Amino acid sequence: MKRILFILFAAIMSTTVCHAAMSNSRVRKETRFLTDKMAYELNLNTAQYNDVYEINYDFISGVRYLMDDVLRGEEWALNRYYDYLDVRNDDLRWVLSSRQYSRFMQAAYFFRPIYVSGGRWSFRIYVTYSNPNHFYYPRPHHYRTYCGGHYRTHHHNVSYYRGRHNHPAYNGPFRIRDNKSYHTSRRADFGSVNIRPNSNMRPDSGARPNSGARPGVGKSDRRPGVNGSTRRSDTKKEVSKPKRERSSQKESVRRSSSSSSSTRSTRASSRSSDKDNGAMRRN
To answer: Where is region (Disordered) located (predicted)?
Structure first.
């Protein structure tokens, strides 16, 4: 009875943490826990252990902000999740031997580590290993320093781990996104999620921060006002025209004022000369 209660408590704690976006320290702890159990069951050596930690870290770090959209039933988020999962499983293919990878695929808590239950997402590994504080191995040597530098986007979208281990790699089918069993896997992992209609495209980037949506998706590329009553270029002309009229009016005012002042000075000069002539005649 105590064991059952402890398992339920561990499951509740794990789902409660996973419902919110994970902190970096939590990502490292979840990554270590999953990697530790893979090393225990698949009998990984030290080099494999360190590489598997990196691969699991990149996967968990990549999907942690995506899972809230998955819970809301956004189909684009579900598809994106399985894209991340296929990249992770492809990288693991170059680290594990063919025999290890076959065993890896047979364990759903390794091959498809995340599922949704009761409106929350969590890791399947806690169903089998219920004590979140028990580890078989010490921390990887780069537990606190690795931050995703070996993810394939930093290496021209080619797996960093290809050719690093001298053993035959698994060459059978492993992708979930492109497999015929994709919808079967989705039902097993996220069957309780109600998919929203018309949600296969990402929303506009202004709808939610951190949604990963590209700006302008679903919008027209045409500028406002085209084929309307006024075009942008016409508007500029109409706006600039009064400026030229005002400047010409100012110039005419300046000219008229200067001409009137010169006329006044000419009249004053003529009056002065007339007075001088009159004075000379009287003399």
So the answer is: 185-283
Could you report the per-residue pLDDT of 13-28, keeping only the tens digit for each?
A: 444 444 456 899 999 9
Task: Specify whether the CB–CB gap between 111 and 89 falls below 8 A.
Answer: yes
Residue 44 CA neighbour count, 13 Å, CB half: 26
Of 13, 40, 34, nearest to 120 by C-alpha is 13
Dihedral angle, C-alpha 175, 176, 181, 186, nearest 10 °: 170
Does residue 80 surpass a pLDDT of 90? yes
The amino acid sitting at 2 is: K
Q: How many residues can be counted in the chain?
A: 283
Q: For 117, list phi and psi in degrees, rounded to 5.
A: -150, 135
Phi, psi of 152 (to 5 degrees): -65, -20
239: pLDDT strictly greater than 70: no
**What is the Cα–Cα distance from 38 to 66, expressed in whole angstroms?**
24
